Amino acid sequence: MVLLLFGPPGSGKGTQSRLIANWLGVPAISTGDMLRAEIQAATALGQAAQSIMASGGLVGDDLVNKMLSHRVAQPDCRSGFLLDGYPRTLEQAGFLDRLIDERRLKKPIILHLDVPLDALVGRLTSRRQCPKCGRIYNLLHQPPKTAGFCDDDGTPLVTRKDDQEDVVKERIRTYDAVSRPVIAHYQDSNYHQIRGDRSPGYIFEEITGILEPLVSKNGAGGGGKPPIIE
User: Fold this and answer.
1) 104: annotated active-site residue
2) What is the pLDDT, as a whole number, of residue 220?
3) Catalytic residue among 106, 132, 160, 195
4) For residue 129, which of 121, 139, 119 has the smallest C-alpha distance?
5) Would you call 160 a catalytic residue per the annotation?
6) Which domains are delineated in the chain?
7) Averaged pLDDT, 103-121
8) Which of these is catalytic: 71, 123, 127, 128?
9) SS3 at position 7
10) What mean pLDDT comes out for the span 135-147?
11) SS3 of 217, please?
């Protein structure tokens, strides 16, 4: 089983990625994870990526695609895998289509977390960070015990530049512009749009409702009864 998980910044995609991967017993793979693993292992791909990044460049599709091909060939991907945020471009989507055909894998299941702009902005601008220990809070869902101060060391919390409203809106606009053609590429396939403006538990329940029949049919991953998420 191949799963593609899409969602804008603040959609809770990282949380759902972990929940799905743990439930099914398959790896969740992101571009960042692949880059870090290749660099840490000092592979030829990792050294090439590190050289590009050190010079201030962006790692291109060709190198990322090679890393993906290497990653999904690993033993832990035999029962399937989840791709978190890949493909990011139409070129990557085309490469993934060919890779799936070459490896005789089943067509991917697309899970798209769709969240209204106002909800995304509200979530992201509610983040606060302790500049001393790095702990992150959310004023809506995980506020500090004492307003404005870190629970661990009492340091006044700050708003990161990335969480300021104008920056947040630009990040979301950029994501929409880049992801729209990629998502459209898959909308004639096994595509599922999921409301992402609900609690993680409700979202995960809807996702498991989509996947359970497919898991039973294909015998993919660990499966079993999904955990209850509060």
Assistant:
1) no
2) 52
3) 160
4) 139
5) yes
6) 2-26+79-218 (3.40.50.300)
7) 94
8) 127
9) coil
10) 92
11) helix
**What gap in Å lies between CA 99 and CA 116, rounded to an integer?**
33
Average pLDDT, integer, range 37-63 = 84
Would you state the structure tokens that stand for residue 53, as one six-digit string?
Answer: 């990044």
13 classed as catalytic: yes
- Active-site pick, 66, 88, 135, 198: 88
Rounded CA-CA distance 57/94 in Å is 23
What is the rounded distance in angstroms from the CA atom of residue 216 to the CA atom of residue 208? 12
Look up 171 and say whether it is catalytic.
yes
Kindly tell me if the per-residue pLDDT of 72 is higher than 60.
yes
Catalytic site residue from 66, 135, 169, 171: 171
Residue type, 128: R
With cut-offs at 50, 70 and 90, classify the pLDDT of residue 222: low
Q: How far apart are CA 85 and CA 170, in angstroms?
A: 18
How far is residue 36's CA from residue 33's CA, in Å, rounded to a whole number?
Answer: 5
Of the residues 13, 71, 123, 128, only one is catalytic, namely 13
Per-residue pLDDT reduced to its tens digit, 176-205: 998 999 999 998 879 999 999 998 999 999
Residue 81 has pLDDT above 90, yes or no: yes
225 carries an active-site annotation: no
User: What does the pLDDT look like over 8-31, one tens digit per residue?
Assistant: 988 989 899 999 999 999 999 998
The CA dihedral of 180, 181, 185, 186, to the nearest 10 degrees, is -10
